[in-house]
Design goal:
CBS domain-containing protein, three-stranded mixed sheet, alpha/beta, 23% helix, CBS-domain
Length: 188
């Protein structure tokens, strides 16, 4: 079993982005809520605390760019395992609540950030020394299956446009793909 299969949370609530934070707070009966845009694509992973803070700001919609929800990572099922093994994952996203995992049918599940942190800590503490009874060389066997690239979805902090990217260099951010307003992508 993998981290994703063993620890994925299936008990979450889908929240329409048109709801106000106060309305969403009333509807949220699970620990996590996934905010959906007008195309039913996930844009944020929130908790009751996040919604309460937004309601106190007097914001009218969950899709308002001023809302300031924590950064959200949205990945396909195929890339989830590699993502959590990335060394800078936890350091880069201090306020993140978790990871939204999607498939062809929409939101597939959630992986809480505490689970990812615990998993990374156990990887660091494992002993990886090779035993003498093992033999072979790199490349002796191939990996089954074929490569499937997935795109990540990032919401621009400036205009709220949802960008689909294959790769992102955090030192040199690309332009936002909003056709109405050309500007550099801003992460929240």
């Amino acid at each position: 079993m993998s981290l994703t299969q063993d620890h994925m949370i299936k008990d979450f609530q889908l929240l329409a982005g048109t709801l106000s934070p106060a309305e969403a707070l009333v509807e949220l009966v699970t620990e996590y809520g996934v905010v959906l845009d007008e195309h039913s694509k996930p844009v944020a992973l929130v908790t009751a605390d996040d919604l309460e803070q937004a309601a106190n700001q007097g914001i009218s919609s969950l899709l308002d760019t001023k809302i300031g929800f924590p950064a959200t990572i949205i990945v396909g099922c195929q890339v989830m395992q590699d993502l959590v093994k990335w060394e800078g994952f936890i350091d880069r996203y201090e306020r993140i609540r978790g990871v939204i995992i999607i498939d062809d049918n929409g939101v597939f599940g959630i992986l809480a950030i505490t689970t990812v942190r615990n998993y990374l800590n156990t990887l660091k503490n494992r002993d990886y020394e090779l035993r003498g009874d093992r033999s072979g060389a790199a490349g002796d066997s191939g990996l089954p299956g074929r490569h499937q690239s997935s795109k990540m979805v990032l919401k621009c902090g400036e205009c709220g446009f949802v960008n689909e990217l294959s790769y992102i260099d955090y030192k040199k951010l690309p332009n936002c793909k909003n056709p109405n307003k050309l500007h550099e992508l801003k992460l929240t």
